[in-house]
Hints:
Helix content is 32%, strand content 22%. It contains 22 helices and 30 strands. 43% of the residues are buried. The strands form 7 sheets. It has a 7-stranded parallel beta sheet, sandwiched between helices. A 6-stranded parallel beta sheet has the order 16-26-25-17-24-23, with helices on both faces. By secondary structure, the protein is of the alpha/beta class. It has 5 domains: 8-111, PriA, 3(prime) DNA-binding domain (GIY-YIG endonuclease); 142-196; 221-403, Rossmann fold; 406-450 and 512-648, P-loop containing nucleotide triphosphate hydrolases (Rossmann fold, 3-Layer(aba) Sandwich); 658-749, CATH 3.30.70.600. Strand 25 (574-579), helix 18 and strand 26 form a beta-alpha-beta unit.
Amino acid sequence: MPPDQPTQRDLFEHRPAWAEDDRRQGTIATVVLPDGVDKPLDYLVPEALAAAVEPGRRVRVPLGRANRLRLAYCVAVRSGELPQTPLKEVSGVEDDKPLLSRRMLALTEWMAERWMARRGEVLEAVLPAGVRLRQKARVSRLLVAGQVDPARKLTPAQARVLAAATQPAKAEQLAHVANASRAVVTRLLKLGLLREAGTVAAAAGPARRAIAHDRPEELSPAQATALGAISAAMREGRHETILLFGVTGSGKTEVYLQAVEETISYGRQAIVLVPEISLTPQTCDRFRARFGTVAVLHSHLTPAERHGQWREIAAGRVNVVVGARSAIFAPAPRLGLIVIDEEHESSFKQATAPRYHARDVAEWISRAEGVPLVLGSATPALETFARCLSGEWRMCRLADRVGGSQLPAVITVDLRDRSARSRGAISPRLAAGVRWALDAGGQVMLLLNRRGFATHVQCQACGHSMRCPQCEIALTLHQPGNKGVCHGCGLVTRLPADCPECRSPGLVHRGTGTQRLEEQVRKAFPDAAVARMDTDTMRSRGSHEKTLDAFRDRQIDILVGTQMIAKGLDFPSVMLVGVVNADAALHLADFRAAERTCQLVTQVSGRSGRGPQGGRVVVQTSTPDHPAIRAAAVHDYEAFVRSELPIREALLYPPFGNVIRLVVRGADEDRVAAWAGTLAERLRAAAAQDGAAGLRVLGPAPAPIPRLREQFRHHLQVHGPDGPALRALVGRATAGLKTPDGIAWIVDVDPVEML
């Protein structure tokens, strides 16, 4: 501010006595800092910035005694009487236009309350990093020509700019080379004829070959009923949450496609969420075959690519958005439909702050916009199933596969029986099934949800197990190179030849991971082409697409993989699916362990028998009588639900109760335990003061993984029948707490991971 203009503080401090009763009027901006300060702050808006400061834009504000300028989100603006205490002034405005609509600002406020997160964290999560680039960085962005409709008439200057934009260049360079003004470049950007390099076309990855337009002539009766329910909600402009509970291969994707088709016919946009990057290529292929250009949002995009996609969506130039969890925040201005495929997947829950669940966010958005939310799964989450049983959400059943194919027969191999075992991970029964499928010209998928060569390395003489020095986790052997890898912190170390404890030679490799399984499969079936899909082999960009395309083209006979091969993939030539160890996660210290096991086995079984030759499934297990295994073996997920819900109800676990988990970590185990104890005492005291029935505090205790990345971990849980009351309790009990140095702790509302 120029020195000859008095500030608000000057006016306040040097008012004449007769003006003491005057009421000062002005405009106040409420801002939220991305980090460091939990509560919103008020700043005076100077007249020079009054037109530019509005909710959804970022502003620069002075903070602290040093008045260091910080970037903050403006979340509200109001005019009226100023407070008695003078306010600091907004120093500047960062953005040309609002980055967030008022509805998205309301969403972030709700998310912060719902998951007990800082508002700034939520605002940062909603906006991709590329969108949050500083204005100076955006000015020099590289531009390239987009697709031009041959019928579009261009001015000579526009044509020259587009001819010069065959390679990425800055706006000023294009204007200079084409002998045109910057206004021409700006106009082409607005028309979408110029785009940022690395945006829509590049973000889709390498050029993908077209797949057949497989729209069926008619839907099955169950599909038609489901589509009719979605269409009715769209036509009436109302929100409804509809679950498509359909067996694998029942045609849920076709219902999504036709629902999106109808959405577009109304001039509106659709957001389709898929759980993992491995599902995105096939899903995008199907949607591109129907609708042409599809925006893709996932974690493998660069910030510039994500920013470009964001701009295209916000401008309304893309009708279909496909992506993983964070795609729910896509700024579709004409939203008409949200679809969440494989809605039961735990990857829809954010693992870091803010720990939101995309399904709950999608329901809030669809309710606010008055549009239908469609969930689909062969194995819905128990929370979803319960809401359908209560009548809150609508369930549409698709009980049969489309095209007349039958669900595959499931053979259970009891690994407790010695005759069922072999020297490797593949039982004689599974080996016979693989040979049957290969001889019939079919393909095979083998699931083992364990990476690496051996799951642990142990001394045969003294029993010492090689563990990560930073974590309480056994090192997993990876080959080649005899490397010990910690799957908790990522540490890689060279394993010794002798035991470090007793110096005995010959450490033994126990347990089997996908790497070892691949080796055994290659030896057992030398005539077959074998490939592996896990996070170790899928690190490079485009590797998912390349492997799945090769499998579709029959260049691969046997596909070995972790859970990334278990869901959503449709390959008609797969005649056998083998589950090498169905018990891998069944006995973890997690109340959802049985649910996840049933879901995983059911989902991977559904990859078999989709073609005319039919198929089989072989499930190897040491607990064949467990309800989760029994239900999956007969394709009856509902039987598992009926057995599991009474257990959850008795223990007040979701969906009948709510859970908040607190995790404390630090380098000193005694201090971690002491602080966890302090939290537990405060929570119990607050619960006793409330006198509310059903509230209970469990713990503290060492977490199932007690040390991770050199940090000891203790956790506790708070259970209760009412979610808002539980959050209020935790908020009161922890308000104003000063965390000791060297201690960090988090609050996870409705956790899906308990390790």
